[in-house]
Each structure stands twice: as structure tokens, then as C-alpha cells.
Design a protein that fits this description.
With about 70 residues, the chain is mainly α. It has 2 domains: about 1-30, no CATH class; about 35-69. Helices cover about 75% and strands about 0% of the residues. The protein contains 3 helices and no strands. The chain has helices at about 5-30, 35-45, 45-65. It starts with 6 loop residues before the first helix and ends with a helix.
Amino acid sequence: MTSTVVPGTVVWVALAAGVVVWLGVLALSAGRFVGPRRVVRWFLGSWLSRGIVLAAWGAAGWHVFCQRP
């Protein structure tokens, strides 16, 4: 039995590894780098997040109301 790794799995593993490295650097740096709380606070206060929420709302509405039975 052979086991192959699909490209999507590689992407998710790379993202997880990046998060682990980032959190490790944050834990060792003690406030010198941008942390997750600061990123979330900036994102929720930016116009980018409002545009993303509006696009997601439109996509959800399209899926709910515009699909043929």
C-alpha cells in the first residue's frame, strides 16, 4: 500500500508549521513582535474586514436564495 501526499495537505501542513513557528517566536520575544490579538484588533477595525464580511454575506445569500431546486 502506497501513501501519497496531495498538494492540499502540503499547504495545510505548511500553514500549521508557520503558525507554530510564529507563536514560538512570540512566546520568546515577549511583546516585540505583532501578536495575534493585535492582528485581530487591526483586522476587525479595518475596511478590509468589512468588505470580506459583505462579500461572505452576499455569497451566503446567493447560495440560500438564488439556487434552483
